[in-house]
Design goal:
It contains 16 helices and 16 strands. By secondary structure, it is an alpha/beta fold. It has two domains: 204 residues, Rossmann fold, CATH 3.40.50; 191 residues, NAD(P)-binding Rossmann-like Domain (Rossmann fold), CATH 3.40.50. It has an eight-stranded mixed β-sheet with strand order 3-2-1-4-7-8-9-10, with helices on both faces. The chain is globular, with a radius of gyration of 23 Å.
Length: 436
């Protein structure tokens, strides 16, 4: 199929790079978002998110005349839905006394409804938003068919999840394999034709529900494996073992690859997607459910380590280093570091947070220091929550001159303890009953 114009709905961390990449491949792209601020920003030639390489490719897309942004869709050859699928804020499900989080599909619903007036025979509609299995068939298709057109017959309908890593999105959009799930084989083929415009990796065609399942399986697999690493950190703490040493030794086994523990799991994928499976089949997902419970409670374990290290936290000044959910990105969604800060403040601590990728973050109840120096200057302790490159490159001797703190709590095994000890710091690592 030939695609001259594409409409991308949702211009966030996935939608904007996708739209820009299509535009750079000589396709006319209309980017749609419900935020007037985002639309105004993009039409000025600026961007609102941090992603390496994106400013340059977006600027070229705008300069080429192939990209423009608007609040509403227009007629196009293909429509891509790339909107958020977060949790419902004040609603949970329950099964046998256990509560679980529910997917908030309102943005997907609204995006599909926005397409209906512009849908024409022969169009392709692709849902990229991570969704519970059966969403394409049971939610999106009925909405689009309000146009009086039949999915799989009059227009093609697919599910094709993003499978990229923040910080490497532009490269992985092109190089990673891509799964295209259609409501019919013909829809899958049409979707494959669309993404072959720029995808160099393998394009796998399947049905829509299998593609949905693939996406949530990938992130659930990661979540379960992180959960066992986090449980190991708690056990090591109890037994007086350094979990980082134990993991490094265990991983010498040719069939063992234990992941790294930390303050928890965040982001819009790994911390969210497993709940989609629990919601869909709570009777079949006890392992997934309990893994989510472990990872969601890991910030409480971090705070317990801080309390055992510092004693009462009431009035203690703590510099929290890192707020994003992963290193070298500005994405704070579902960040365990943010949850740690909130929990510390509930214990009476005075926390100054610092994140070089989000110095202007506006988080309720959290004070953001404008610079690293401001965050650490009068601190009683430094709490290392994230392996931002800027933090990893800090010189202990230099830091010692900038802060009154002489206690360092490392939750990610980011720093070699010896240089910090030589600079006069007491070093405590998450998952180690061996205080340094």
């Amino acid at each position: 199929m030939k695609y001259n114009k594409i409409c991308v709905i949702g211009l966030g961390y996935i939608g904007l790079p996708t739209a820009s990449t299509f535009a750079m491949n000589d396709v006319e792209v209309l980017g749609v978002d419900i935020s007037p601020t985002i639309i105004e920003t993009l039409n000025r030639g600026e961007i609102h998110i941090h992603e390496p390489g994106l400013p340059e490719i977006f600027a070229n897309a705008v300069k080429s005349g192939k990209f423009k942004a608007a609040l509403k869709p227009e007629e196009a050859d293909a429509f891509i839905i790339a909107v958020p699928t977060p949790f419902k804020e004040n609603e949970t499900g329950s099964y046998n006394g256990a509560t679980y989080k529910l997917a908030d599909m309102r943005a997907v619903t609204a995006a599909a409804e926005a397409i209906v007036p512009y849908l024409r025979k022969g169009n392709v509609v692709v849902l990229e938003s991570t969704s519970p299995p059966r969403t394409t068939f049971d939610l999106v298709a009925p909405i689009l068919e309000k146009s009086k057109l039949k999915s799989g017959t009059d227009f093609h309908l697919c599910y094709s999840p993003e499978r990229v890593l923040p910080g490497q999105i532009l490269r992985e959009l092109i190089e990673n394999s891509r799964v295209i799930g259609g409501v019919t084989p013909e829809s899958a083929k049409a979707g494959a034709d669309l993404y072959s415009i720029f995808v160099k990796g393998q394009i796998i065609q399947t049905d829509a529900t299998t593609a949905e399942m693939v996406k949530v399986m990938e992130n659930t697999y990661r979540d379960v494996n992180i959960a066992i690493a986090n449980e190991f950190s708690r056990l090591a703490d109890k037994f007086g073992v350094d979990v980082w040493e134990a993991i490094s030794i265990a991983n010498l086994h040719p069939r063992v690859k234990i992941l790294s523990p930390g303050p928890g799991v965040g982001g819009h994928c790994i911390s969210v997607d497993p709940w989609f499976l629990v919601e869909a089949a709570p009777d079949l997902t006890p392992l997934i459910y309990h893994s989510r419970q472990v990872n969601d409670s890991q910030p409480h374990f971090v705070v317990d380590v801080v309390k055992r290290t510092l004693g009462s936290l009431n009035g203690k000044k703590i510099a929290a280093l890192g707020l994003a959910y992963k290193p070298d990105v500005d994405d704070l969604r579902e960040s365990p570091a943010v949850e740690v800060v909130h929990l510390l403040e509930k214990e009476g601590a005075q926390v100054l947070a610092c994140d070089p990728f989000k110095p202007d973050a506006n988080l309720h109840g959290i004070t953001i220091a404008p610079t690293f120096e401001d965050a650490v200057q009068n601190a009683d302790a430094l709490l290392f929550l994230l392996k931002h490159t800027e933090f990893m490159q800090l010189n202990p001797e230099t830091v010692a001159q900038k802060t009154t703190a002489r206690t360092l709590i490392d939750t990610v095994n980011g720093w070699d303890a010896a240089p910090w000890q030589n600079a006069g710091f007491r070093v405590v690592k998450l998952g180690s009953g061996k205080l340094k």
